Amino acid sequence: MHSNALSWKYWLLLILSGLVSVVACGQQSKIHSHNDYLRKAPFWEAYANGCASIEVDVILVSGSLFVAHEQESIQETRTLESLYLQPIHQGLRSGLIANPLSFFLTVDIKSEPYETLEQLMRSVRPYEEMMYSADHGRGLKLVVSGNRPLLQEYADFPEYIFFDHQDVEDLETISLDKVAMVSLPFDRYSQWGGKGRMVAEEIAAVIQTVEKVHQAGKPIRFWASPDSKSAWKALHDIGVDYINSDKPFEVSRYLANLGQRYVGSSIKSELVELDFGNDEVQRQVDNVILMIGDGNGLAQLSAGMYANGNALNITNLKNVGLAKTQSADDFTTDSAAGGTALATGNKTNNRGVGIDSNGRNIESLAHILSKRGFGTGIISSDHITGATPATFYAHQKDRDLIGPITEDLYGSSLNLFIGAGKNDFLRYQNHALDSLEASGFSLMGSLDQVAASTDGKVGYFASNHGLPNIEKGRAGFLKNSTEAAISYLENKGTPFFLLVENGHIDVGGHVNDARMIVEEVIDFDQAVGAALKFASNNPNTLVIITADHETGGVTIPQGNVAHEMVELEFSTEDHTGIMVPVFAFGPHSGDFSGVYENTAVFDKIMTVLLKYHANTKE
């Protein structure tokens, strides 16, 4: 019976916790600056970080209110007046502190309460103009904590003095007019140290206590609560009004953008039913679809998976490896060098496109296979002249040489391109767009036209400039482009090579936009699903999914799988040297397991293809 009851409570608690998390995420917990006087800049640091409650311990000695926790640590110059009352008064008069005030001063009395309160009122007299007045509805409130007078005496004190109540059993029977908040010891309800998660029974006890205080119409704080990111998140989600912290800067920064980092997705990727009967088999490979999620590290992939019901088409695959991403001249690659390694099998210097580290042109997969009779195409959500797609047709020393890169496209052997950035072929006055058509590319007006075309070379510009992210209206483009490109290449009746890139995962990492990352990963997975569906029905097709590098230094400290929510944190706004996953599906997919350099992706593809197409005339 006990076991069943515990199980029932546990599952109920999980449901309740999820509901609390969803609701509370739209609310902003406030910060209680614990032992504020111990900081290098008492009051000012707390005020600068938006603390709503600023705590100062006071001891009455010889008619003075010293700021200290015990008499042994008293310093003559550190008084309530010098550290708090004077700075606040001066700040208000000079305009450095906004009025009405966004904080109150919590005075934690460590000495005998009545005499200390008498001295507190005397100390305040020179500053009465800034103290709270009900008539004006604003001013500095002093919230007395620690040693306090009797509850029934609260009303005897001036209107600027309120109290920190420390009991929940009497909330329905007492007057709460002079109670500013309810503060309770955290260890009365939980022994959690702030790492991992609280146990179910303790979460239930904390939630119940918070709800009881809220039902009385008062805010709540727990003192001596864990002071970590996991704890701040847990207390915030439960609905604790004042988070007790010795780290005002860190907790302020963490809470300020929690709503932007704890995200779900507005789109979903439908999971494709795959036939694994041809996966890993040693049979002929005719078609290769290489899919690159620019900036898509393991954390990004995980975030997209959790937000997509804990599954993606990518993560349903059985064969996975890890690729090292360093460039020839730097530990951390850029997209040009990372793309070149995948496209040509050669390490190059950052910014180099389709060249080796000595500046010599290198043939890409697309060019090599084109000479062997393969149809070839590239798709990108980025400009078609962007660093990653350009590495499959261009040869330039710098990725920003957009004019010369446009000339490389019309001089390439590609059969297909789909992407953004038509204006790149107009703005340099090099007649690139005219030359593109003169070189044999038929420019299509829609993806449907691409899919149905029998022309030898086709191109489709999806926009004059850049394409928007998913949140701003690009949903479905990459999947639809992949399907159209496959239809076009399949209709040629030859083996084919197709590159598909989502360039916006990288953008989300650079600007530390959690929602963009999650939605772009899911968008990428929709395109992956289209490629896998084709491969499952065409067993001579090999699909490889990887990334050129990771962007943002993303980690996932928390999430809620049931509600498809995930929290992302960022360590940088740039690329990192973290290895990236390589997934594979189809014949010879097992060849892509293991840990290897990014150049090995090219080598493995060529090894597989030459095994069956070695006699193809160049």
Model description:
The chain is α/β, with parallel strands linked by helices and 618 residues long. It folds into two domains: 30-258, Phosphatidylinositol (PI) phosphodiesterase (TIM Barrel); 284-613, Alkaline Phosphatase, subunit A, CATH 3.40.720. Helix 9 crosses helix 18 (514-537), helix 16 runs parallel beside helix 18 (514-537) and helix 17 runs antiparallel to helix 18. The chain starts with a helix and ends in a 5-residue tail after the last helix. Residues 1-26 have low confidence and may be disordered.
Provide the descriptors you would attach to this structure in a database record.
TIM Barrel; single chain; 618 residues; alpha/beta; 2 domains; disordered N terminus; 34% helix; Alkaline Phosphatase, subunit A; elongated
What's the arrangement of secondary structure elements?
Elements: H1 2-24, E1 30-33, H2 44-48, E2 53-61, E3 64-67, H3 80-94, E4 104-109, H4 113-124, E5 142-146, E6 161-165, E7 179-185, H5 200-215, E8 220-223, H6 229-238, E9 242-245, H7 248-256, H8 258-261, E10 262-263, E11 287-293, H9 298-307, E12 319-324, H10 335-344, H11 365-371, E13 375-383, H12 387-390, H13 402-410, E14 416-420, H14 432-438, E15 441-443, H15 447-452, E16 457-463, H16 477-491, E17 496-502, H17 504-510, H18 514-537, E18 541-546, E19 550-551, E20 555-560, E21 565-569, E22 575-576, E23 580-585, E24 594-597, H19 599-613
Parallel strand pairs: 1-2, 1-9, 2-4, 4-5, 5-6, 6-7, 7-8, 11-17, 11-18, 12-24, 13-14, 13-17, 14-16, 15-16
Antiparallel strand pairs: 2-3, 10-21, 12-23, 18-23, 19-22, 20-21
Helix pairs in contact: 1-5, 9-18, 10-19, 13-14, 16-18, 17-18
